[in-house]
Write a structure and sequence with these properties.
alpha/beta, ABC_AA/LPS_Transport, six-stranded mixed beta sheet, 9 helices, ABC_transporter-like_ATP-bd, binds adenosine-5'-triphosphate, Rossmann fold, ATP-binding
Length: 252
């Protein structure tokens, strides 16, 4: 059986009267891509926020390789090996591409480590490798704000790579990418899978989901309605009706 990298159970979070996440249970496996699929407002990004400590859960549990993480701060979760990307990318727009990637390497620089030249060189080496893997080496000295859209998406991925995390939570990383860029993106994921990274992908484009994911967790109204292999989930007419906004109860 494949190793479980992250497991959460019964996660819940309300915003006032709105139950955004209503008892989500989910496992992410080493070397596998799990796609979180569901209509707008289903609770996908909020689930990420609960896992990463960006939001506090009202209830539920989560653990990384068996270590409980509920209540930890985002930086503490990051140090347990979770890297996360955002829909709005959250780059340091006025820093250079290289500086953006170097900043992401600091997550694994433990505060008691002697800094020293060697540690610095190791971080620089990781940053250069991430730039190379994402095709950004020639743009390393450009400011993030001056990059084209697809290049910004790849910069966000370079930051993930440089963090050397074993769990990646990616919020719509392929949205707006053309086919060639999507293929490049797909090969980054494949390479990470071979290294045992557990990847969770929020994705609206079902072609991308089929291309890249091993499993789907289908969310609706804060709940996982179904989980399984992409073929089975995407062929389910009831889920398709929900996904495309055609619920039977809304038809009247
Ligand atoms: N900080 C917040 N305060 C109030 N309501 C929120 C907050 N964050 C999310 N919500 C609401 O919670 C629900 C779930 O939002 P969430 O962003 O998790 O959905 P999603 O599945 O990621 O949607 P999308 O696919 O559109 O990004 C939505 O109704 C959203 O408006």
């Amino acid at each position: 059986m494949t190793e479980v990298s992250l497991r959460c159970a019964d996660l819940a979070r309300a915003f006032g009267g709105l139950q955004a996440v209503a008892g989500v249970s989910l496992a992410l496996y080493a070397g596998q891509v799990t796609a979180l699929v569901g209509p707008n407002g289903a609770g996908k990004t909020t689930t990420f926020n609960l896992i990463t400590g960006n939001l506090r859960a009202d209830s539920g549990t989560a653990e990384i390789r068996g270590k409980p993480i509920m209540g930890l701060k985002p930086w503490q979760v990051a140090r347990l090996g979770v890297a996360r990307s955002y829909q709005d990318l959250r780059l340091f727009t006025h820093m250079t591409v290289r500086e953006n990637v170097l900043a992401a390497t600091e997550v694994s620089a433990w505060f008691w480590q002697p800094g020293g030249r060697r540690a610095q060189q190791e971080r620089e080496h990781r940053a250069e490798a991430a730039l190379d893997a994402t095709g950004l080496t020639s743009l390393a000295d450009a400011r993030a704000v001056d990059l084209a859209y697809a290049e910004r998406k790849f910069l966000s991925m370079a930051r993930i790579l440089a963090a050397e995390a074993h769990i990646w939570l990616l919020d719509e990383p392929a949205s707006g990418l053309d086919l060639a860029s999507r293929i490049r993106f797909g090969s980054l994921l494949k390479e990470a899978q071979t290294r045992g990274v557990a990847i969770c992908l929020i994705e609206h484009n079902l072609d991308v989901v089929v291309e890249l994911s091993n499993r789907i967790a289908f969310l609706d109204q804060g709940r996982v309605l179904a989980e399984g292999d992409p073929d089975t989930i995407l062929k389910d007419p009831a889920l398709a009706a929900i996904y495309f906004g055609d619920r039977p109860q809304e038809a009247a």
